[in-house]
């Protein structure tokens, strides 16, 4: 697919937002070596929530949203630090 885009005139991309398909980031970087690859936030959150107990589900989703919807990097860092202070079971997976 990246080769087809290149052939159709797309000369450069800054960010490739992918959903975790194996090989897709490599395919993008082969055609666009300067592109930065980022995992889609929706997929990151969904994958993370698979490990959250139902008891914590609402609180974790609320706290994750405060991180990824933060208006500034500083606000995001503060929300992340607050998230890390909670005793969510999911933090064991992030720290590994």
Automatic annotation (TrEMBL):
Record's protein name: Mutator family transposase
BP-aspect Gene Ontology terms: DNA transposition
Keywords from the UniProt entry: DNA recombination, DNA-binding, Plasmid, Transposable element, Transposition
GO molecular function, one term: transposase activity
Listed PANTHER family: MUTATOR FAMILY TRANSPOSASE (PTHR33217:SF5), TRANSPOSASE FOR INSERTION SEQUENCE ELEMENT IS1081 (PTHR33217)
Family, similarity comment: Belongs to the transposase mutator family.
Natural source organism: Escherichia coli
Protein task: Required for the transposition of the insertion element.
